[in-house]
From TrEMBL:
Region described as Disordered: 52-82
PANTHER family referenced in this protein's UniProt entry, alphabetically: ANILLIN, ANILLIN/RHOTEKIN RTKN
Domain Anillin homology: 10-99
Pfam family, one: Anillin
Name of this chain's protein: Scraps
Residue stretches of biased makeup (Basic residues): 52-61
Length: 116
């Protein structure tokens, strides 16, 4: 996770067009971040760089393929429990007609420690 504030703005590559809006419209743009899971497999096993001894002709024997499967992680509440979403809100801004000429916006409610 990047803990320092980046200096680069978030750019939208194309224009955002909304037809048929009234003059008192308000659009809320919300920014969500995906919370990544912790790595389960060790780095050397995942990338096949473990120091293996023996015959190098058999690089991926069938008996060793099962080592690469991540173990199943069960929810403590049981298999039928509802999981919380992996996306979390990391800020929003409100866009209305008076801001139509602005080039940059400030995000509101950015959590402490957010990479934004």
């Amino acid at each position: 996770m990047q803990l320092t504030k980046p200096t680069a703005p978030l750019h939208f590559p194309d224009e955002i067009r909304m037809d048929g809006l009234t003059s008192d419209f308000k659009v809320t743009v919300e920014i969500y971040l995906l919370q990544a899971s912790k790595e389960v497999l060790p780095h050397d096993v995942k990338y096949h760089i473990a120091g293996k001894k023996g015959n190098s002709k058999h690089l991926t024997p069938k008996s060793k393929v099962s080592e690469l499967k991540a173990p199943r992680v069960q929810s403590p509440a049981g298999p039928h429990s509802v999981r919380s979403p992996q996306f979390q809100l990391h800020g929003y801004c409100i866009f209305a007609l008076p801001q139509a000429t602005r080039k940059s916006f400030t995000l509101n409610k950015v959590p402490h420690g957010s990479p934004l």
